[in-house]
């Protein structure tokens, strides 16, 4: 069947396939472990990456899965990706290989670290909650759910049944992340079991960070964003970060409550989300700068565009209309956020850009992968869910390409804390603390953004690649665990790479369920 008619962002999900029905009848009761493996790619073809990464370094810190077991772990747990642009492919495997380093065994179950080296300000087991949302978004694609199941439980229940002492040391979008994970695994029971923990956490932020007007404040450091232009280490500003996170968490809790059948709770949290959205649009949108900006404790805008102004789109918060779309004009502007090695954390034209010195965690312009992953996830949402003409697929691809290119140091794959926007030099590159810094996502963006596999509720999913047609003649994402099934997505412009027909193809458990002539959106439905 050919579905060459392009679907608009909000087209009804109307493409149903008999093949999918058959595929899922075969595989619906199977766990991911029972489902068949990859349909197109061969796992062994990618083993050389793990072997190279193992040779590349001195393994001076090993946690639950040492380098000697890295490939065995990857073989069992990760999706596979093949692309004609080798650095994209290499980085995909490198990021899984380095993520694995941070899985740690503790007396209360698995945990995930941010730094491999011990940090003085960390919690028990060297844990830091700052990037927990990123850890969940990235790790939700692992085949074995036990890692993330336990990592989250360690944070929320690992302190004699209570949350870890420093769970609230940093702003959190965990409720949102866990709902997004549920869309991948379909494990409703785990999500409902976490609901009381998430409600308790939400209330903590209300009690400790909400002002009388309903907006939330935060200190830069507690957002993991020290030395910014807009604030400081002790300033209680109203920031787009925490307000967007609380919106995302409220929306997620409403959806979890609906899954539970608690209509009153669902309604309450929908109303909370709607109120935050209204406040953010009314008070954090600077109409002069056409940007979501920080509002100072004493009132008035901080008068600087910062990457945190894109975070509302990470949660699809802004209305789909002007003037909000205009903010995205800044990602293609060299006076805005567009630099040779990626997206800066503050606008390049600002007089205070990169004025805070170096190497004490400045967020005054240098590129932080933490922020890049938030902005790029927001940009993918913009391209999928909004009608705008500020950015397109080629802008997304350009930034993904820079993100890939930035993750090298001395010619080898490397992920650290932050880097110089012009030279690509890692600012703490020679410090042991910076190596394998687990503070961002990359593979989640390859899966949901670049290849465009976007899971939705009720077994609905979309495939909408953000690869410009002229860029790659072929690519394949395979072995994706999705609700007990294995999804494969491949593009073959000529039909000669995979010999399974031209165009874009989607398979579930090896059975084709969707096909399009070009790189365009397909809406599909799983049947249970």
UniProtKB/TrEMBL annotation:
Keywords: Signal. It comes from the Bacteria. Residues 458-513 form the Glycoside hydrolase family 65 C-terminal domain. Pfam families: Glyco_hydro_65C, MGH1-like_GH. Residues 124-440 form the Mannosylglycerate hydrolase MGH1-like glycoside hydrolase domain. Residues 1-35 form the signal peptide. PANTHER family: TREHALASE. This is Glycoside hydrolase. It comes from Echinicola rosea. The lineage of its organism: Bacteria, Pseudomonadati, Bacteroidota, Cytophagia, Cytophagales.
